[in-house]
Amino acid sequence: MLYYLFTYLDKMYDIPGSGMFQYISFRAALAVITSLTISLLFGKSLINLLRKKQVGELVRDLGLDGQKEKQGTPTMGGLIILGAIIIPTLLFAKLNNIYIILILFTTLWLGFIGFLDDYIKVFKKEKKGLAAKFKIFGQVFIGLVVALTLYFNDDVVIREKIQQTNTRSTTQLSEFERIPDHSSRFSKVDVKSTKTTIPFVKNNEFDYSILLKPFGEKARNYAYLIFIPIVIFIITAISNGANLTDGIDGLATGTSAISGVTLGILAWVSGNIVFADYLNIMYLPNTGELTIFVSSFVGACTGFLWYNTYPAQVFMGDTGSLAIGGIIAVLAIMIRKELLLPILCGIFIAENLSVVMQVAYFKHTKRKYGEGRRIFLMSPLHHHYQKLGYSEPKIVTRFFIVGIMLAVFTIITLKIR
Fold first, then answer.
1. Residue 175 lies in a domain
2. What is the pLDDT of residues 32-54, one digit of tens each?
3. Local structure of residue 276 (DSSP, 8 states)
């Protein structure tokens, strides 16, 4: 909203400073400051309100140290995160941008699904919350919406590089001609494509439509039959991974902020023609605007961490965890970096796999030996380390360190080929 206001003031009245709103970096800085302010200032008021309404966490007895003390801690704190994301985005982003519209819808939808789950747990006193099939349906639905929009919307395009035809040596060029013209290295026409980024490959692009090549060239026109299931799977997996990671104080919030910073960098360089050319990656027009949203996301998670760090004054609940996982997945898909998620979201993936492996191995050994056996002392993975005797702050800090290492490695994959 403010973007349009100050753009109008700049054009009509030439007010000094109003032109700053044309710069993504300036608006991103305002977004992160605003989201931090909202989560810090209004977070405390919401926590007090939740405590007054007795919106407390129902903690299952898992036999873990410090678990009983968490009983009654206010939950549904994800509302703080959602508000601190949405408000700055509405204020500083271009609201006619398809990527902004889509990511806002994702945030609201998954936040709504998580809110229903928390509401049933807290107010209906049903420990299981929203039935798993309804959660999965909600995740599949948003995956379908995202996939169809990205595939069919005319504003979702890439601008491909073209071969340089100028064969003159550098010494033959004038001083003016030696200045890099990054825009001339890309085609003038934006094209629809199902290409994505694949790490560690020199020509780091992979087209999903290639998977249909054995069925003939015409079959590639039906690439959405491959693209849609992949998008649904990624969103569901990462969203559930974040949900499972939200088991000890500050873990999901901090690791999500780290992933958010990384995706913000990737969104900015992918939407900037100069950096896209320098890094030899796909130039995606209009995706730079996602930097505003990501800045709000990082600010919201960081501000919430103020109250969520050990010992937590509030839990985000599924209202927050389902949303932040889905946000990370959709952001990666929109900037064509979803194949980097196994690296960037390695902690979410490990938490997910630990549960799958534990359940599968238990069922297998029960059928084979008549008694179920376990790989981990407890799953998800962070509970395994709790059972080994590590304190919550130590587990969280070490997971943060691993998350930062994965984030740095994700970024440098752009040059390691």
1. no
2. 999 999 999 988 899 888 888 77
3. H
